[in-house]
Amino acid sequence: MFTTCILLAAGAASRMKTDKLSLPYKGQRLFDCALAPFVDSPLIDEIIVVVNPGFRLPVEASKCRAVVNADYLDGLGASLRTGVAAAASEADIFLVALADMPELTEEILTTIIEAFRRSDKQILVPVYQQRNGHPVVFAQSCKEKLLKLEGDVGARTLIRDHPELVEYFPTEHRAVVFDIDTPEDIELGRKSED
Predict the structure, then answer these.
(1) Which of 34, 67, 111, 164 is surrounded by the most beta carbons within 10 Å?
(2) Is the pLDDT score of 12 beyond 80?
(3) Which neighbouring-strand residues pair with 95?
(4) pTM of the model
């Protein structure tokens, strides 16, 4: 099955008040930490990095290309639409991820993708301690709905309005809910190394 990762990197980082994706995190840039497991995963065929017009980090990894979301101020819905529209026509699975989640691993991604492949549902949401996380997986049958998303809540309305399509997949990995929004989050990540 052809799997496209849509990595959302077009946010304005308003809470961080700086270009957070270029900040150092565990010896690398935050963006590189977040991107690496998707590049390393043999289950992912292409990675669409959705960026804003001012994005300055190079996207040079294999199977990876950047697309600009000119409407990034409209929020996650616009970024998701941009990523889905840019995906390969043969994409069977859309794996939607955030570029500020640096603790995901290839093993976690494998677990989530394989759980989706076993599921009879069209959407899979990883859950850690009753919190919905990322990446969220969508079947190709959701493509038209994803292309109609609006606002800054991403696909949450799609998930909420179509519970019959959704499998909630419990995981013990905090990484599916840990993202970097504030300087305190970076410090929390450093402490997790200790």
Answers:
(1) 34
(2) no
(3) 5, 137
(4) 0.90
